[in-house]
Amino acid sequence: MSATSAATPPRERTTGVAGGPGGPRRRGSTLLRHLAVVAVAGLLLVGVSYAVEPFRNFQLATVAAYLCATAGLTVLTGLNGQLSLGHGALMATGAYTVALCQNAFYDRGVTGGLLLLVSLAAAVVATVAVGAVVGVAAARLRGPYLAGVTLAVAVVVPALTVTFDGVFNGEQGLSVPVEPPPLALGVYFPYERWQLWIAGAATLLALLLLANLVRSRYGRTFRAVRDDEVAARLAGIHVARTQVLAFVVSAATAGLGGALLAVLAQSVSPGAFGLTLSLFLLMAVVIGGLGRLTGAVWGAVMLVALPDLSHSVTEQLTLPAAAAQRLEGNLPLAIFGITLVVVMLAAPGGVQGLLSRFGRALLARWRVGRS
Question: Where are the stretches annotated Disordered (predicted)?
Answer without folding.
Answer: 1-25
